[in-house]
Amino acid sequence: MAAEGGGKEMNEIKTQFTTREGLYKLLSHSEYSRPNRVPFNSQGSNPVRVSFVNVNDQSGNGDRLCFNVGRELYFYIYKGVRKAADLSKPIDKRIYKGTQPTCHDFNHLTATAESVSLLVGFSAGQVQLIDPIKKETSKLFNEERLIDKSRVTCVKWVPGSESLFLVAHSSGNMYLYNVEHTCGTTAPHYQLLKQGESFAVHTCKSKSTRNPLLKWTVGEGALNEFAFSPDGKFLACVSQDGFLRVFNFDSVELHGTMKSYFGGLLCVCWSPDGKYIVTGGEDDLVTVWSFVDCRVIARGHGHKSWVSVVAFDPYTTSVEESDPMEFSGSDDDFQDLHFGRDRANSTQSRLSKRNSTDSRPVSVTYRFGSVGQDTQLCLWDLTEDILFPHQPLSRARTHTNVMNATSPPAGSGGTNPGSNGNSITTPGNSVPPPLPRSNSLPHSAVSNAGSKSSVMDGAIASGVSKFATLSLHDRKERHHEKDHKRNHSMGHISSKSSDKLNLVTKTKTDPAKTLGTPLCPRMEDVPLLEPLICKKIAHERLTVLIFLEDCIVTACQEGFICTWARPGKVGLLSSQNQANSPSGTVV
Fold first, then answer.
1. Which region ranges are annotated with the description Disordered (predicted)?
2. Chain segment 430-482, per-residue pLDDT in tens
3. Which of 122, 147, 394, 407 has the highest local Cβ count within 10 Å?
4. Strands annotated E in 302-398
5. Residue 572, exposed/middle/buried by CB under 10 A (0-12, 13-18, 19+)?
């Protein structure tokens, strides 16, 4: 059923793979699923999603795992590479009627061993706030569906805030909520706060403060996912119209846009230092976009179907320092940035140091991964020969399969398929490709990111008093999709590429079309990355990819959450666990 290592058949499911760091191995005994371990019939159901939180308990085993399968929601202690999963004892289990959970997010600021705040979005548009440790349901937002009747596609706590959260819907709208406020018994009335090309932001008109605090309208299609920048000041949104829109969440301004090669964009993530954004979607590509230069610097081709998740690996992203240097003023903000789980801070601070100057005293390689409906996991390296192609490089490396595509929003076109920096410590040592459009200048993205929270405070404080009370550390994840400056061709699932071309007329760069413009360069105009590895790891489409310190977590639509031990981490498991577990099965 599964093949160890490479396997002879392309269709065999892999249970291990090797990169330059070493061997990654599937831990079959660390697989999480429904207690009966029966594959879930996923026809017509929402994607399986996974959320993690660390409750910092005294036992040293503070990781908690939440995942949805069909109408069910589970909450477990996550033992990772340390011990086998015990599926017989979920901390909490919920079964919903008439609607299905679609997404969820923990508040990492308030989590303790006694209480966690978990937001759950639903297919009918509601958002529930629950505490799976206390087994309490505290609040239900949009209960009567008066705010939005469409499916919730993404829900996240605003970084640094204990009470603010952002919700995206398939209607193309996003709403900012405060858990302390109610939603009202009638449909909300809105007042325009700011309008831009293909986007508008409204405040809620009411005598007393009520939810939603803000309503974002972006483009014309479903808003599939959004992600806050590491410092919480910018918001990257991807939509069914094929556009990436990056907003300054504080000032409600559009920072930049990018269009897919064709079809909708389904997923988005930021590099740990906030300099690059990677997207994936229906064009089967991963696209690396420079936050500083607002342009595509690389594309990666390895998937044979839609890309469902992209994520950076902060633990493999490497930095090599040569000379001590001082941070620029706005870099101070990056010192406070925290990744999804407040880890890899040293790497992050070194990345921000790397980005505070144009002089390249630090060399960096970004690692990122992607999973798709083709059931494949791809890992990519984004190296300095792609990020800074104009810089003189000492040597050329020609490892076609060396992680070229770390696609973390790195500011330059992807790595040349034939010029991988296979050494993490010397990422920028290949000959620059003759692709001037794909070159990303090593300017500091920090300066852009560091000046926005105060603007947002001022802009929103006028219409929403609650925003004025947020500190910089409240990192308003409201990178709101702002005005999609160029093509706001938010196409529906059915309208995909044709819609995009129609909307292209709204593009500032080229009113006639986007293909061949900086908004959507042609394939030959930017470096094409090849995956470091591309392995089939499941029977059903993959919906989850999360990088943790000791492992990589993936999940497929059958409801199986798999743990892949990083090189050297398998030894953390007890021999008893390994002896009692079946070998080599993914499902």
1. 402-453, 476-495
2. 333 333 333 333 333 333 334 334 434 443 444 433 333 333 334 333 333 33
3. 407
4. 307-312, 318-321, 362-372, 376-382
5. middle
